[in-house]
Design a protein that fits this description.
heterodimer, A: about 130 residues, about 90% helix, B: about 220 residues, alpha+beta, four-stranded antiparallel sheet, about 15% strand
């Protein structure tokens, strides 16, 4: 009986962890995507002061999210994203508007791919 | 390197815990579902050990789910005969009264040579001596010899030997085993008394067994 209770507990933990991970992942990536879109808009407006503030905010958010993502997803995908976020930091410091826009677009695509690859869909399951 | 080391320790602890949780049935004779789970456990656990880019957590979750499902299915199998048949299959009679059931062998995808080999491993070299042979769900064969070919039992010989019970190893390599002593309905003081009579001590004993009739067998350690 003890074994069955432990098995039930483990299964419940696994299901809860899977649901929680999906929710947290979705929330964090959506927030990051929104911030990236904001940064892109600011880059288009060439609002240099705001670009730096938003970029710093994004990097702060990313450094927190990265740790969680490395626990739940393949590290290769996260390392690629980290590289792009570091590039974004560099371009925001040097106020390179074109590069900021390009990196924002890249990050946005990568985040979307990451989110879609973790969604509970038949295509991902199969 | 340190990451690999820590990951290996985490996965080792997880696998040991899960294998222990599955129970001793796992170590002995494996049912088909248990064999599959054992292979899967080793595969799933080895992946994050080889590749540090795979999160350990995903592996731990997968392992936990596999073992949980195995335990729950095993528990349900105890209650449901149908589920048990689905999960484990059912035993198949392959020899009846010395005659091979070829259809049953075909269903099992076994050749006559496989059957003869399995019989030989059970020390049966003559099919005509077999009353029944059954292929069990774990792939082993059980044999019932014809009455004339069965070894004579005490009952056949009208003997009534005394049942002394199983001998329990109360001392192993100089260490007293309290569980074995409890099983053999004795205690440390009694064992020490026996040893004092034989002019020896627990630490000098390699193996001491005691049965329910308090009959003991002592093997002393070799002196260096």
């Amino acid at each position: 009986m003890k074994r069955i209770i432990i098995a039930f507990a483990m299964l419940s933990f696994a299901i809860t962890a899977a649901i929680l991970c999906a929710v947290i992942l979705d929330k964090n990536i959506s927030e990051l995507s929104t911030e990236i879109d904001k940064l892109y808009t600011k880059a288009e407006e060439e609002n240099n002061a705001e670009i730096r503030i938003t970029a710093d905010k994004i990097l702060d958010k990313w450094s927190k999210t990265e740790k969680f993502l490395k626990i739940v997803t393949m590290h290769d995908k996260i390392n690629e994203l980290s590289k792009s976020f570091l590039a974004l930091k560099h371009f925001s410091q040097t106020q390179n508007i074109e590069e900021i826009k390009q990196t924002c677009a890249e990050i946005s695509v990568m985040l979307n791919i990451l989110l879609s690859s973790e969604e509970t869909e038949l295509s991902n399951i199969l | 390197m340190a990451i690999s080391l820590i990951r290996a320790v985490i996965l080792y602890a997880t696998v040991i815990f899960l294998i222990r949780l599955m129970g001793k049935r796992q170590i002995g004779e494996l049912q088909p579902s248990e064999l599959v789970i054992t292979i899967l456990i080793s595969e799933v656990a080895s992946l994050p050990m080889q590749d540090n880019s795979i999160p350990v957590l995903t592996s731990v979750i997968s392992l936990s789910v596999l073992v949980s499902l195995e335990i729950l299915t095993a528990a349900l199998s105890l209650k449901s005969h149908k589920l048990r048949t689905v999960m484990q299959g059912h035993p198949v009679i392959v020899i009846r009264n010395g005659e091979i059931d070829v259809e049953a062998l075909k269903k099992l995808r076994l050749t006559v040579n496989d059957l003869i080999s399995a019989l030989r491993q059970k020390d049966v070299f003559e099919i005509s001596q077999v009353s029944y042979a059954v292929f069990e769900t774990n792939g082993k064969i059980s044999i019932l010899l014809k009455p004339v070919n069965r070894p004579a039992t005490a009952e056949d010989l009208n003997l009534s030997p005394e049942d002394n019970g199983m001998p329990f190893a109360v001392i192993c390599d100089g260490e007293f085993n309290f569980n074995a002593a409890k099983e053999s309905k004795t205690d440390k003081a009694e064992i020490e008394r026996i040893l004092t009579k034989k002019n020896t001590k627990i630490k000098d004993i390699l193996l001491m067994t005691v049965n329910l009739k308090k009959q003991s067998n002592i093997i002393k350690k070799e002196k260096k």
